[in-house]
């Protein structure tokens, strides 16, 4: 237990044909209805910033794939091998490539991985050479600051840097959006670091959302605790009661199960 896995999507079924995420296996249970099959339970799931191609340059990340005589037949060679082992260095190389945007020094300010927001240990990891990052990848994948940076990038970019409630898009000179990435189901309570569990909010709206003074309907209308939110703010929220600003890609919209959890806390607040 505790081993890391990397998720790969095949081309079949409109897949993205590449490595797309990582997670850590926490438990394996035999399938009671199918002999020889098991369920793997995972934690620390983290989608990649970008889809990582099977190839790095002219070679494949997985050394075993380089042994296939006809590279055009890689898809056929992988059929029936959806679960297979890879080495630690292969995993590290894939994961670092997948987090390219998060670890890019050019994004340090907007993702709060700069000296103003990150401690010396985090700064050392994100500024290390790729080979060193690959070696320390397991440590990086569980680091809260780095995970928050990846989550912020994914959520804020999905909402085009715009607060979902106020619809304001404010970008400073360093390219950092005023909007923040809020978790709908908090990580501390088991919530995942995925865009569908996030929403881009201004600092004030984030504060209200985290304290369950505002929430969302399943139709993405805004719910406001009228006896706790100042009337001045309620006026600003009036146009968002029917529907908030959402990502262009519907697959990135907040998931109803996460919204349901938040509404339960909103009703109890």
TrEMBL record:
The keyword Hydrolase applies. GO terms for molecular function: endonuclease activity. Residues 163-216 form the HNH nuclease domain. The keyword Hydrolase applies. Keywords: Endonuclease, Hydrolase, Nuclease. This is Putative restriction endonuclease. It comes from the Bacteria. Pfam families: HNH_2. It comes from Bauldia litoralis.
